[in-house]
Automatic annotation (TrEMBL):
PROSITE patterns: ZF_PARP_2
Protein name, UniProt field: Poly [ADP-ribose] polymerase 1-like
Cellular compartments per GO CC: nucleus
Top-level taxon of origin: Eukaryota
Region annotation Disordered: where it falls in the sequence: 186-234
Lineage per the UniProt record: Eukaryota, Viridiplantae, Streptophyta, Embryophyta, Tracheophyta
GO biological-process terms attached to the record: DNA repair
Taxonomic source organism: Pyrus ussuriensis x Pyrus communis
InterPro entries reported for this sequence: Znf_PARP (IPR001510), Znf_PARP_sf (IPR036957)
Ranges of biased composition (kind: Basic and acidic residues): 199-213
Length: 234
């Protein structure tokens, strides 16, 4: 019988199937993807069971694993993945501690003409219609089933500096769609430009309001003058 004291609190392996889901991001863990399981007390039987997560999801958090001795199966995974886990444990947190950004790189994305109208844009929550150009984003280390789709214009607002010509799938787009996407890149406004346009619009509205007020005042004067003339004639 296995000694409960010998059970390590973490387990690492490559997913044997695509049936498990990540407890952190709730997305499926694709087969052969590196996953880390937090060992917890089972509710259906006497023993422990792993709560699986994408390895990358765990390593985006700080101080989840205190020592490599806590990880069962570490010696059985590929050397580069072993080093990745060891580096995380030694640093006590994610390898990159720079401020988070919403910008994406071309390697993390893909572009295509939507083959159906089933997908929903992650940014605006509206349906992406069939034949519309859509851009995907994929969290690092996750499979194709975890893709998030975006309207091209919604994505450009999120990541305006991306080089669309380097997106996987760009060469397969019809020329007309390529030109339309390039036009979107040029149309994405800066925040300063948007503010200036808003101020200009407000100024224009004020001018219109003042003009309408002047016309109204002029009409009041004309009416009063007509009434005065009528009184004198009476």
């Amino acid at each position: 019988m296995e000694n409960p004291q010998a059970q390590k609190p973490w387990k690492v392996e490559y997913a044997k199937s695509s049936r498990s889901s990540c407890k952190t991001c709730k997305s499926p863990i694709e087969k052969e993807t590196l996953r880390l399981g937090k060992m917890v007390q089972a509710t259906q039987f006497d023993g422990v069971m792993p709560m699986w997560n994408h390895a990358d999801c765990i390593m985006k958090k700080s101080n989840q694993i205190k020592s490599t001795d806590e990880v069962e199966g570490l010696e059985l995974i590929r050397w580069e993945d072993q080093q990745k886990v060891r580096s995380y444990v030694q640093s006590g947190g994610p390898p990159d501690t720079s401020p988070a950004t919403s910008e994406f790189t071309a390697k993390e994305c893909g572009i295509e003409v939507s083959p159906t109208s089933r997908a929903t844009c992650k940014q605006c929550s509206q349906k992406i219609l069939k034949t519309e150009v859509r851009i995907s984003t994929k969290p690092e280390g996750q499979g194709p089933r975890s893709l998030a789709w975006n309207h091209a214009n919604c994505f450009m607002e999120l990541s305006p500096s991306i080089e669309v010509e380097k997106l996987p799938g760009w060469e397969t787009l019809p020329v007309s769609d390529q030109e339309a996407v390039r036009a979107l890149v040029k149309k994405v406004p800066s925040k300063a430009g948007t503010k200036r346009r808003k101020q200009a619009g407000d100024d224009q509205k004020s001018k219109v309001a003042r003009s309408e007020g002047d016309v109204s005042m002029s009409r009041d004067v004309s009416v009063r003058s007509a009434c005065d003339v009528g009184d004198k004639l009476g």
